[in-house]
Amino acid sequence: MGCPVARTSEVIGNRWTPLIVRDLAAGSRRFSELERSLVGVSPKTLSERLKRLEEAGVITRRCFAEVPPRVEYALTPKGYALLPVIESMREYGIRWLPAEECDDAADDSGVNDAPAYLVAVAT
């Protein structure tokens, strides 16, 4: 694929993928934490999305030598570079799409301030 938009869509164009990136922007997370925050995602789908993001170099998977085993996922610099794209999607949703069920209550309030994760990354 030669088009940059098409190549980027290959990375984040699947359902749940932008939300995974959004959640990891706040820091590393375990599989179970991501599963809880992404209401409705199946474990199989979440596992597939995490694997694709890791293969694309957007996230890292870190295994800890503990019992029980612990695995955490975190954004790479390539992943953090996607945050302005995710923020643009959020702003588009606020402006152009009707607010139905949203897990970010601030979005429904009309407040357009950037989320804390973007402020932290920008500074």
Q: Total strand count, please?
A: 3
Q: Name the shape in a single word.
A: globular
Please give the radius of gyration in angstroms. Answer: 15 Å
Gap between N and C termini = 34 Å
Structural domain count: 1
Secondary-structure-based class equals mainly alpha
InterPro entries: ArsR-like_HTH, HTH_HxlR, WH-like_DNA-bd_sf, WH_DNA-bd_sf
Domain HTH hxlR-type: 3-101
Protein name: Transcriptional regulator, HxlR family
GO molecular function, one term: DNA binding
What does this molecule look like?
There is one protein chain. The chain has 123 residues and is mainly alpha-helical. The protein has a single domain, classed as Orthogonal Bundle (Arc Repressor Mutant, subunit A). It contains eight helices and three strands, in the order H-H-E-H-H-E-E-H-H-H-H. The protein has helices at 4-12, 17-24, 31-37, 43-55, 77-80, 83-96, 105-108, 116-122, and strands at residues 29-30, 59-64, 70-75. The longest helix has 14 residues, at 83-96. The radius of gyration is 15 Å and the shape is globular. Residues 105-112 have low confidence and may be disordered.
